[in-house]
Amino acid sequence: MALAPNTPAPAAGLTTTAAPFIEEARAHREIYIHQPYELYSEDNQATWGRLLVRMQDRWMRYANRRYLEGLDKLQLSPARIPHLDEINRFLQPLTGFVARAVTGYVPSYLFLDCLRRREFPTTVTIRDGAHLEYLPEPDIFHDVAGHVPMHTDPAFAAALVRFGDCAAAAARRASAIADQHEKLRRLTSNIRAMSRFFWFSVEFGLMRAAPAGEADDRDRFKVYGSGLLSSFGEIAHAIKSPKVERRPFEIAQVVNQTFEIDHYQPLLFVVDSFDHLFEVVSELEQWMLAGKLDDVAPGEPEVKEADLASFLAAKHD
């Protein structure tokens, strides 16, 4: 069928927000897909290379040691977007984790349950090369270069699994509440708390690198959050800017702290180590089971109907 006059041709490649393959899969309500590698355009491949090359110095300066070790193990190449099956051949023997291709947004319970099974939902599209820093939704650079190197570390991988355990406990707890209104109210608060915790740790977390007083902030903190690790501008801003408040990671503060996604974060939280991260994720589950997450502060992030539905439909094992 011919296109009408002045109608733009369908976008080539797998550019985020403009990939016909992804739109068709979403129209069929598909979440888990294969990586259609043959659809990447030359522009897509070039964008990956530019993103990877320009981050090298930033990672060496600001990323935590475990991330750099994972990056070295994966050997990501600027010459081409990685095949997920190749990544998994390196990754799975290290921690049991694999990257699992998805169409994009995954409802909360399904996402966290993937982590419990040591699967990481991974977007296969890549951002528009004309807007390297602007990212309206995750892409393969954020997911693979930002997240996956951390998945090579056993302690961090264990913390991700504990997130999945926490979600499973929340679903079981909700299923035992008879009153539907109260069930939804508590579950909404629990999901919001877990989302905030995930945001301020896995996505935008800092880790202490040296005790206070032994170094300035540029050396005292390192980045482990993928949202920072995949952002050329914000990774440096998170460490160097005097406009960023950096607080010790305390659950009560984190689960009640709202956030917005369309600008650099003015507040970040600091863990001492990945063992510390595992401890606080385990404590998060204890707080949830004790009802301490049933009334967290309102506000962002929005809890979508699909997120609630995913928890209500969860099968308990």
Name some characteristics of this structure.
alpha/beta, 317 residues, 14 helices, 8% strand, two-stranded parallel ribbon, Phenylalanine Hydroxylase
Structure write-up:
With 317 residues, the chain is of the alpha/beta class. It has one domain (20-312): Aromatic amino acid hydroxylase (Phenylalanine Hydroxylase). The chain is 50% helix and 8% strand. It has 14 helices and 6 strands. The protein has helices at residues 20-27, 42-62, 65-74, 84-95, 108-116, 140-147, 154-175, 180-203, 217-220, 226-229, 232-240, 251-255, 274-289, 305-312, and strands at 98-102, 119-123, 206-208, 221-223, 245-248, 267-271. A 4-stranded mixed β-sheet has the order 4-3-6-5. The radius of gyration is 20 Å and the shape is globular. The termini are far apart. Residues 1-11 have low confidence and may be disordered.
User: Nearest-angstrom radius of gyration?
Assistant: 20 Å
> What is the strand content?
5-15%
Silhouette: globular
Number of helices: 14
**The CATH topology:** Phenylalanine Hydroxylase
Structural class: alpha/beta
Measured distance between first and last alpha carbons:
50 Å
- Uncertain residue segments: 1-11
Main CATH class:
Mainly Alpha
* Total separate domains: 1
Mean pLDDT: 91
Q: Which second-level CATH architecture applies?
A: Orthogonal Bundle
